[in-house]
Amino acid sequence: MRIGVDIDGVVSDSYPFWLEELNQHYGKNIAVIDDYEMHLVFDVPREDMNNFFVSNVERLLMMPHPIPGAKQGIETLLQDGHEVIYITARALEERDLTVQWFKMQEIHHEHVLFTGFDSKVNFVKQWGIEAFIEDYQVNAKLIAECGVPVFLLNASYNQEELSTGITRCHNWGEILDGIRRLNP
Fold it and tell me: According to the 3-state scheme, what is the secondary structure of 62-102?
């Protein structure tokens, strides 16, 4: 089976690191990112937050550790005969840093596609993705509407009610169980 996998919040444990960096930068003490639109959490203009990310992109992409169980989960998917295709909202300009992070973490990364914040749906269709692992509920809903089952990795910013075709998972073990149920 061809499995689409998001990176930030699914493979890279980006958000806790980003929260620390943003608190330091903005002089705040926010404990939880409860909205995927982080500029709203920090009450700053989107452009200001974008500038922070652009100015600090190497540190923000290279420093996070993998999500617990992600590396082993991806290895298990590959051992079970699945193809893993990363589809990320990161910009194409972040390709080298992204590949470098995968190498540094020793995580398989043969196919990495960059949407640049456009919808992931086009890549899902183009690549024939049969299941998707995501953390952003808006993406999960759009992908599920295409008939592709989505495993939503639970996060503080994705607590809305789930749409049809989306299964909430609390860890990579639950994701693997869900994929096995799809493909016994």
Answer: HCCCECCCHHHHHHHHHHCCCEEEEEECCCHHHHHHHHHHH
Token pair 């196919």 is at which residue? Answer: 111
Signed CA dihedral, 84, 90, 94, 98: sign only: negative
Predicted local distance difference test score (pLDDT) of residue 184: 63
* Closest of 129, 117, 121 to residue 85, by C-alpha: 129
pTM: 0.95
Q: Do 23 and 73 share a domain, yes or no?
A: no
Size of the chain in residues? 184
pLDDT bin (cut points 50, 70, 90) of residue 115 is very high
Return the half-sphere exposure (C-beta side, CA atoms, 13 A cut-off) of residue 170. 0
Residues 85 and 148 in one domain: yes
pLDDT-based confidence at residue 144 (cuts at 50, 70, 90): very high
Does 135 lie in the same domain as 82? Answer: yes
- Domain ranges, residue 162: 2-13+65-182
